[in-house]
Amino acid sequence: MKVKLARLAHARSGDKGDGSNIGLIAYSDEGYELLRSRVTSEAVKAHFSAICKGAVDRYEVPNLRALNFILHDSLGGGGTESVITDAQGKTHGQGLLLMEIDVPDDFELDQEGIGH
Length: 116
Fold this sequence. Notes:
Layout: E1 2-4, E2 9-16, E3 19-26, H1 29-38, H2 41-47, E4 56-61, E5 66-71, H3 92-97, E6 100-102
Antiparallel strand pairs: 1-6, 2-3, 3-5, 4-5
């Protein structure tokens, strides 16, 4: 079945110059393993293909059940140079939470739809 990342994690995002930074933090150990195996740099690059013109780097932070993504060349020059709506990348975390991934049919979701 397909599940939006918002059901497995929460996110924080911001910027450094012309790149945005997205932290994706799983709600559970099981959710982290799904994120780790399915939310690749390539998948995130494809999800943000309309705005991310550069590479996407991924860093694993297992002690926090988190992945950190750097989207290079994604802010149209950055806050001081760009005329785009979100030149600081603050909404990119919310945008990533809309991405869908395949999860096993037996993956458990609680009453609120959160994966555990």
